[in-house]
Amino acid sequence: MISAILVMILLGVVLGAVLGYASIKFRVEGNPLVEKVEATLPQTQCGQCGFAGCRPYAEAVAAGEAEINQCVPGGNNVAKHLAELLGVEYKPVGGEEDFGHKPKMVAFIDENTCIGCTACIKVCPVDAIIGATKLMHTILADPCTGCELCVPACPVDCITMIPVKENVSTWKRQFPIFELKKVA
């Protein structure tokens, strides 16, 4: 019995050492350009760019397979930073050259119409919707990114998007949250 335990321990140590060596020897470095592009994006994971999230979009932009102006929540500010980062010509998001970004929108649930199906909760990428099955749901305005993924998911059309007026109490810094330097 003790010899079997010792054999298992020895086998575990040997396999652990082999895996440790393999992880160092065959390490795959990430593309630093993808990392910089992803850091510029707002991380809402909304899919409005046509990709499953911010990482796949960043990979496509870095590979030249996607345009820099597809991030709707980031707006023209992100498009300008991506153009600067990649050294390409700036293209406005949705032709909004003068506005800088899409106005912030927040989802609103008509509580009298909500049937509590939880379909909106399942698609919300930032957990901004609270509620329980067969009970009314509500939206938390602060975490809501206005990605509009909940609107088509609702079977009773009780969700609408409402623009948030910017003033001193509702203004938040636009993306990205750091200063980018041109890559040589």
Automatic annotation (TrEMBL):
Chain sites annotated for binding [4Fe-4S] cluster 3: C124, C144, C147, C150
Pfam families: Fer4_21, FeS
Textual note on the cofactor: Binds 3 [4Fe-4S] clusters.
Binding residue positions for [4Fe-4S] cluster 1: C46, C49, C54, C71
Protein residues bound to [4Fe-4S] cluster 2: C114, C117, C120, C154
A GO biological-process term: electron transport chain
Cofactor(s) this protein requires: [4Fe-4S] cluster
Superkingdom per UniProt: Bacteria
Subcellular location, record wording: Cell inner membrane
GO MF: 4 iron, 4 sulfur cluster binding; electron transfer activity; metal ion binding
Entry protein name: Ion-translocating oxidoreductase complex subunit B
Organism of derivation: Sulfuricella denitrificans (strain DSM 22764 / NBRC 105220 / skB26)
Organism taxonomic ancestry: Bacteria, Pseudomonadati, Pseudomonadota, Betaproteobacteria, Nitrosomonadales
Gene symbol of the encoding locus: rnfB2
